[in-house]
Amino acid sequence: MDDTQVCRCYNVSKKEITDAISACGYATVAEIQDAIGAGTICGRCIPEIRSILASGAQ
Ligand code: FES
Q1: 49: which residues sit within 8 A by CB, 6+ positions away?
Q2: Which residues make beta-bridge pairs with 5?
Q3: Secondary structure (H, E, C), the chain
Q4: 18: number of CA atoms within 13 Å, CB side?
Q5: Which pLDDT tens digits describe the chain residue by residue (58 residues)?
Q6: Domains (ranges, CATH) in the chain?
Q7: Candidates 5, 10, 49: which one to mutate for ligand 1, based on the most atoms within 8 Å of Cβ?
Q8: How far is the centre of ligand 1, averaged over its atoms, from the C-alpha of 9 (Å)?
Q9: Which residue's alpha carbon is nearest to atom 3 within ligand 1?
Q10: Pocket around ligand 1: residues whose beta carbon is below 6 Å from it?
């Protein structure tokens, strides 16, 4: 479980992203953006979202 905040604009934690990946099988940043909004405002969190996708859901 990792409550580290990834997206400050949407207040989305790493856990919310990994949960979404394991529950819904998201594989791209665009899917995460559409599903939970993270990465759609300033874009600063996109590299982190990409690395979470690359390491897979825990
Ligand atoms: S920190 Fe995620 S869009 Fe700004």
Answers
A1: 6, 7, 17, 29, 32, 38, 39
A2: 13
A3: CCCCEEECCCCEEHHHHHHHHHHHCCCCHHHHHHHHCCCCCCCCCHHHHHHHHHHCCC
A4: 17
A5: 689 999 999 999 999 999 999 999 999 999 999 999 999 999 999 999 999 999 864 4
A6: 5-55 (1.10.10.1100)
A7: 10
A8: 4
A9: 39
A10: 7-10, 38-45
Token digits for 19? 């949960």
Look up tokens 């989305």; give the residue: 12
- pTM of the predicted protein model: 0.90
Distance CA 14, CA 10 (A): 12
